């Protein structure tokens, strides 16, 4: 039994602080990982895509997530702070004028990766756990043969390089012995028809980068770097693919153990930390 009273590995993260990048609602792996870490005692910070920030904070404040915030001991997951984040941009100098002028970004500041890391440092000093739950491919519905260079590079930028950027900027404020985790998908190694727009390439890059980063961050900061492939989940972001339900059904029909996939706490937590 864990410290939280749930079945699983006896993980005690009291006194640890986690930053989860890519939480914009209560229906996804990022949220589930945040809950798992909170149940183990960690302090939770989240980074939310800037255009979704207002809706997320409003829903959180009005109690719309209270049911899904419940932890095994009956308490509610507390999010210490929500940061605006757009991990496509490393620093303010990278932000194009049209994004700066976009009304969806109005009212928010310090949301590039470098700025968020600096703000977290100023607010809390250090973190122990970094979670990358980010992916986006603007042309994901396009076959690879019909994907533009711009769409392909955008998928790689948002879905794989963003992990490099996060680790690059957060590593200096991570305590030795800390851990990072990202989320990949089996399309990195097998053909998944319909999962296009360069997303399969982005996931393959993410996995390759993980191996290199594990060496570099391990030697430089004694930080563990891992990625997990948990399978298709019908999150709001995944619905952009257009046929996520068919992917879930196929996974269920062909899995050795036919169980409906859910963003389970202990499974993801154990993979994240060990």
From TrEMBL:
Keyword Oxidoreductase annotated: yes
Pfam families per record: adh_short_C2 (PF13561)
Top-level class of the enzyme under EC nomenclature: oxidoreductase
InterPro entries with a match to the protein in the record: Enoyl-ACP_Rdtase_NADH, NAD(P)-bd_dom_sf, SDR_fam
Domain of life, per lineage: Eukaryota
UniProt GO MF annotations: enoyl-[acyl-carrier-protein] reductase (NADH) activity
Catalytic activity: a 2,3-saturated acyl-[ACP] + NAD(+) = a (2E)-enoyl-[ACP] + NADH + H(+)
NCBIfam families noted in UniProt: PRK06300.1
PANTHER family found in the cross-reference section: ENOYL-[ACYL-CARRIER-PROTEIN] REDUCTASE, ENOYL-[ACYL-CARRIER-PROTEIN] REDUCTASE [NADH] 2, CHLOROPLASTIC
Protein name: enoyl-[acyl-carrier-protein] reductase (NADH)
Taxonomic source organism: Oryza meyeriana var. granulata
């Amino acid at each position: 039994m864990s410290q939280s009273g749930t079945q699983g590995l006896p993980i005690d993260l009291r006194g640890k602080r986690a930053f989860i990048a890519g939480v914009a609602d209560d229906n996804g792996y990022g949220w589930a990982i945040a809950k798992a870490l909170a149940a183990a005692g960690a302090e939770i910070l989240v980074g939310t895509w800037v255009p979704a920030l207002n809706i997320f904070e409003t829903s959180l404040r009005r109690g719309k997530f209270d049911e899904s915030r419940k932890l095994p001991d009956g308490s509610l997951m507390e999010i210490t702070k929500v940061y605006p984040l757009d991990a496509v941009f490393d620093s303010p100098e990278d932000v194009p004028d049209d994004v700066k002028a976009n009304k969806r970004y109005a009212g928010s500041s310090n949301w590039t990766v470098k700025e968020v890391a600096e703000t977290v440092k100023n607010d809390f000093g250090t973190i122990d756990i970094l979670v990358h739950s980010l992916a986006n491919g603007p042309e994901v519905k396009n076959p690879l043969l019909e994907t533009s260079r711009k769409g392909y590079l955008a998928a790689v930028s948002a879905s794989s390089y963003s992990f490099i950027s996060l680790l690059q900027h957060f590593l200096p404020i991570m305590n030795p012995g800390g851990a990072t985790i990202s989320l990949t998908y089996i399309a990195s190694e097998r053909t998944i028809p319909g999962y296009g727009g360069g997303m399969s390439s982005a996931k393959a890059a993410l996995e390759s980068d993980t191996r290199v980063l594990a060496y570099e961050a391990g030697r430089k900061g004694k930080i563990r770097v891992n990625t997990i492939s948990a399978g298709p989940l019908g999150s709001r972001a995944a619905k952009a693919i257009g046929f996520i339900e068919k992917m879930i059904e196929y996974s269920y029909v062909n899995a050795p153990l036919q169980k409906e996939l859910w963003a389970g706490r202990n499974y993801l937590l154990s993979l994240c930390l060990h």
